[in-house]
Amino acid sequence: MPEDTTLRDAADAADFRLGAAVAADPLRTDAGYWTSLRRGFNTVTAENAMKMGPMRPEPGVYDFTDADAVANFAEEHDMALRGHTLVWHNQLPDWFQEWDYTDDQLAAFLRDHVHTVAGRYRGTVEAWDVVNEAVADDGTMRDSVWYDALGDRYLDDAFRWANDVAPDADLFYNDYGADAVNEKSDAIYELLEGMLDRGVPVDGVGLQMHALDGVPDPESVAENVRRFSDLGLDVHVTEMDVAYPEADAPENHRERQAEDYRDILDVCLAEGVDTLVVWGVRDSDSWIPEWFPHVTEDPLLFDASNDPKPAYHALKERLEDTD
Ligand code: G3I
User: Which residue's C-alpha comes closest to atom 4 of ligand 1?
Assistant: First the structure.
């Protein structure tokens, strides 16, 4: 039964950024995919197309084909675009393995990459995940190509380089497992507080919210958001999906899932978080079944047949309820 208004309509009316991670191929080939995307969301994040590996197929070469496809789709459909991600320890160019670089060569490479990519999408990308997942789960700095060669100054440099060419974009630090108050979010709080003290242009923090056993305690998420806001940072929920261990999934877990999504949206609306992105359009597009085979495999708002799920309706009702 065609619906009068869509989740996207409700998000637009509430002036809320509700987004989805997208892949370039189905945007080109799958009508069901882009129909659901336009029905549910007013914001997109490139799931993989704007990462370093996919963009840097060979030394000295940039391939913007897929990234442009995502950016053009967003523009055509009046959707906001979050850029993901300029600096990460994963999905590095394959040829990095053979590259016997010096620290200075690596720094020059990274500087050129950030300048080129953030510069290309200036005015198109509203917010960048400049650095992704630089903190390990125990709160120490994660070992990576960047950290091992450049120390933690690579974070300061990356934000300054992004700001050089895209001063109007909001520049975010993004991570997982730090959605509520815990050892890792404490470490990220100290990291960002130090960067701000050094005058590094950090505008926000992204809480990924990959909930693989239901969402964390909403009150603790709210407390976490408040302390980052008190630092003067914007907070975005950047990669949300909700699953449960198959072994003891709640009965009718899709109803519970709807509550979990709504609870996090409630925190967003109460704490001034204006952006919530889910990590995929349909359950069949999700990364979760491949990486976590022991959890429920339907973590998103649309099912594989492009039908909206209870979580879709729960978010729509909540957004329609904002005055
Ligand atoms: O594009 C190649 C294709 O040419 C090749 O044939 C195929 C088979 O190997 O691989 C394709 O690349 C895959 C890529 O997704 C695009 O589909 C990579 O193998 C695969 O590892 C990559 O997975 C992505 C993963 O990040 C990489 O770590 C997931 O789609 C993506 O959802 C996931 O997203 C991350 C965020 O960026 C950061 N936070 C966690 C989140 C989930 O891991």
Answer: 54
